[in-house]
Each structure stands twice: as C-alpha cells, then as structure tokens.
C-alpha cells in the first residue's frame, strides 16, 4: 500500500507556506481524500532519502490531537507528505473569515494543542517547533489537531529559513539562540491564543509603535548578553526610520508596520503581550496566557503541567459544542 504520485488526483489548492504548497487530493485506488504537502528541497538524493526515513516516525503517531499520516514519497525534486485532510482548514484562515474566535473555542484549542504536544513529547520525544494558527487545523466534526511538527532533523535543516512568517511565534530564548525545548512551543501557543482571541497578530498594534519602543531601550538586564539589543536611538533617527518604515521585509497589522528584525528585538526586549483589555476575557484565560508567556523559560511550565490549569480543566468539561460551532462557517 505504498503511496504513489500517479494515484493522487489534484482537487484543490489549500494554501502556500514557506516551504512549499498544500493540495487537496483524492487517492484514486481507495477514494480517500488527503492533503498533499509538496516541499521543495534543495538537497542531495542521499539527504532526501534520509528525510523520507525520518518522516516514517509519523506512521507511529496515533493521537486524536495530531493529524494522521498516510505516507511520504520523493517526487523529484520535491518531497510529498500525505496527511489527513481537515475540511475546515487552519485557524488563521478561520479567524480571518469569521473574526475573533469565541474564548470558549480558544480554550478548546489550547486543550487540543497541549494534549498533542504532550503526546508528541512523552511518547516520541518530539518537540513541535512550529506552533502557530496555520498549523492548528479544524474539521467539520469539530476536531482540532496540530500538524507540521519537527519529526525530521534533516528536513528542518534543509528547508531554507527565509525568516519571514515562521519566526514570529518564536520565543525570546530561541531568538537569542538557546536550545529548543517543549517550553518554546508553549510560548508559541500563548502568542497563537492571543491572536485567535483578538483576531489579529498580537505584536502588530499601536502600543508597540516606535514612540513607546524607545522607553524600554537600555533597560535590559546586563547579566544576559543580548545580540539583538538596540543601541539607544535619537529622535532624529526615529523620525528618519518612520519615513522608511514601509520599505524592506515587513509585517503589517493593526495600523503599524514592523520589520522582522524590529519584531524579533521587540519580542526579546519588551514585556510579553497579554490578553487585553483586562476584563474582556475570563480571569482564568488571562492567567493561562500569562503563564505561557513568561519570558524566562525556567518560569514557564511544560505542556503536561499546563494541562492541569483551571482554564484547561474547564475547557475539557465544558458542554460547548465544537461541531455546531464548526458548522457556522
Ligand atoms: P503554513 O503552515 O506556514 O501556512 P503550509 O505549507 O504548512 O504553510 O500550509 C499552507 C496552508 O495549507 C495552511 O495555512 C493550511 O491552511 C493549509 N493546510 C495545511 N495542511 C492542511 C491539512 N492537512 N488539511 C487542510 N488544510 C491544510
Ligand atoms: Mg503548516
């Protein structure tokens, strides 16, 4: 039952990301609908075979909160990864379509991601490394599952890191070059949850505009050398920078534009974002998000520990009907 490209009929383009594109396909011999991810890899055949071998671990991942894997193959010069198709798409697409996500649903998302991360780490010692709304998928049964986790070290090495898009959910310690741990995924989860609840990427708001940025410059603890710390800027430099703001690689949202470097500096140097305004969301939700976003990874809990949080326990027992919710869009 090896998957072959000839047996797959393209039905629809599902999206494009950093490393390639994803298509909805039908596996003709069985009639199974799948999502086929095409990853363009500039690597030697031996490396490609190694990647393929590493991807086979996904055959052993069986968890309600993890996308099922059908198989992977080389289709020169690409690697194709076939996985479960989630017919409601990813959560970034969902909030862009319907607006901010109901906080009860956000709680269910948090629960699903924590369960998925705990499974990956406890059973397979896998760290996800790319938690973000576009890697959290939903289907019309109301299931929420994560995809695109870092099973293959070779694949991680091979995909050209363009630094655009993917880097923005990165934890402060990762930006500063520390090792990846499960706690880095927890940071990314916190950022993703705020994005879903507010309906916009949390760093792109007017609060983080230039005028405020200077206030925090130079307040960084000297005990931790920080390669990204900004030299203090003069008012003239700030004004000049405002003029050329729209040039270069940039992120846009909520009325401001930040370059990737500025964003990374912001994550390292500024207080972590929060669910705002205070009082709009349940206190337990605020508290959960805060505990995901401790800037010091030693303070941050693991996914397994966070499963015991009151907000998550509530999300587990609540009667909220995700299937009914998913039928509204
Ligand atoms: P990214 O995750 O950075 O957006 P990807 O190439 O991983 O880039 O995916 C592109 C898009 O394809 C995603 O945003 C998502 O909406 C869609 N997609 C990915 N996998 C699936 C899947 N298994 N089922 C349905 N849609 C998917
Ligand atoms: Mg993805």
From TrEMBL:
Keywords for the protein's UniProt record, in alphabetical order: ATP-binding, Kinase, Nucleotide-binding, Serine/threonine-protein kinase, Transferase
Top-level taxon: Eukaryota
Domain Protein kinase: 8-312
Region ranges (Disordered): 209-253
Gene Ontology biological process terms in this record: MAPK cascade
Molecular function GO terms recorded: ATP binding; protein serine/threonine kinase activity; protein serine/threonine/tyrosine kinase activity
Binding positions (ATP): 37
Family under the similarity heading: Belongs to the protein kinase superfamily. STE Ser/Thr protein kinase family. MAP kinase kinase subfamily.
Name listed for the protein in its UniProt record: Dual specificity protein kinase FUZ7
């Amino acid at each position: 039952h090896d998957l072959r490209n000839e047996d797959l009929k393209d039905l629809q383009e599902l999206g494009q990301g950093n490393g390639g594109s994803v298509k909805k396909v039908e596996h003709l011999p069985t009639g199974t609908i799948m999502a086929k991810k095409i990853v363009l890899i500039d690597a030697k055949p031996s490396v490609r075979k190694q990647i393929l071998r590493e991807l086979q671990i996904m055959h052993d991942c069986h968890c309600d909160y993890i996308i099922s894997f059908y198989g992977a193959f080389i289709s020169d010069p690409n690697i194709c990864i076939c996985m479960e198709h989630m017919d409601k798409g990813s959560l970034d697409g969902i909030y862009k379509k319907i607006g901010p996500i109901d906080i009860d649903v956000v709680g269910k998302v948090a629960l699903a991601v924590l369960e998925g991360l705990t499974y990956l780490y406890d059973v397979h010692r896998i760290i996800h490394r790319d938690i973000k709304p576009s890697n959290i998928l939903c289907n019309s049964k109301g299931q929420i599952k994560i995809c695109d986790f870092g099973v293959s070290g070779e694949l991680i090495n091979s995909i050209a890191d363009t630094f655009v898009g993917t880097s923005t959910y990165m934890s402060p310690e990762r930006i500063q070059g520390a090792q990846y741990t499960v706690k880095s995924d927890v940071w990314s989860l916190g950022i993703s949850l705020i994005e879903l609840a507010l309906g916009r990427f949390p760093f792109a708001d007017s609060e983080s505009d230039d005028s405020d940025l200077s206030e925090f410059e130079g307040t960084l603890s000297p005990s931790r050398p920080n390669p990204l710390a900004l030299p203090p800027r003069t008012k003239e430099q700030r004004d000049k920078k405002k003029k050329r703001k729209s040039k270069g690689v940039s992120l846009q949202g909520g009325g401001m534009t930040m370059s990737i470097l500025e964003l990374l500096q912001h994550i390292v140097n500024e207080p972590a974002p929060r669910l705002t305004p205070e009082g709009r969301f349940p206190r337990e939700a605020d508290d959960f998000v805060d505990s995901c976003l401790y800037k010091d990874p030693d303070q941050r809990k693991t996914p397994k520990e966070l499963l015991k949080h009151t907000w998550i326990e509530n999300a587990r027992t609540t009667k909220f009907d995700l299937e009914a919710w998913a039928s509204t869009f």
